[in-house]
Amino acid sequence: MDRGVVVFWVYILESEATGKRYVGHSNDLNRRMAEHNDPHHKISKYTSKMLGPWRLVHSEQFDSRSLAMKRERWLKSGVGRDWAKRQSGRASPPVAD
User: Fold this and answer.
1) Burial per residue of 49-65, b for 16 or more beta-carbon CB atoms within 10 angstroms, e otherwise
2) According to the model, what pLDDT value does residue 86 have?
3) Residue 72, pLDDT above cutoff 60
4) pLDDT tens across 7-32, in order?
5) Residues 26-59: pLDDT tens digits?
6) CATH label, 8-87, candidates 3.40.720, 1.20.120, 3.40.1440, 3.30.2010
């Protein structure tokens, strides 16, 4: 059974209530967004504790989970957070080291 090509997403969410940001990755961005905005969803511990709703401010697509995880780690670094604050929503982000 061919399930097709699996893609992974790295995303940045922002709380509309507080302006706080969250960086994560998933193979189903729409499902994950719904989970983050569901206060009763157990997996989203960070975003369920903070006021939402959460809106998507940036996303990037990758061909493998390992590449997505590498990018997520970079976006959570000081340099990545600074870039996200300045550039969120731009089409051409810098490549992670």
Assistant:
1) ebebebebebebebeee
2) 83
3) yes
4) 999 999 988 888 888 999 999 999 99
5) 999 999 998 888 877 766 666 656 777 889 999 9
6) 3.40.1440
Q: Which amino acid is at 97?
A: D
Q: Which amino acid is present at 5?
A: V
Residue ranges of the domains in the chain? 8-87
Q: Is the CA virtual torsion 46, 11, 65, 1 positive or negative?
A: positive
Phi, then psi, of 5 in degrees rounded to 5: -80, 130
Task: Write the DSSP symbol of residue 62.
Answer: E
- Report the 10 Å Cβ neighbour count for 8: 21
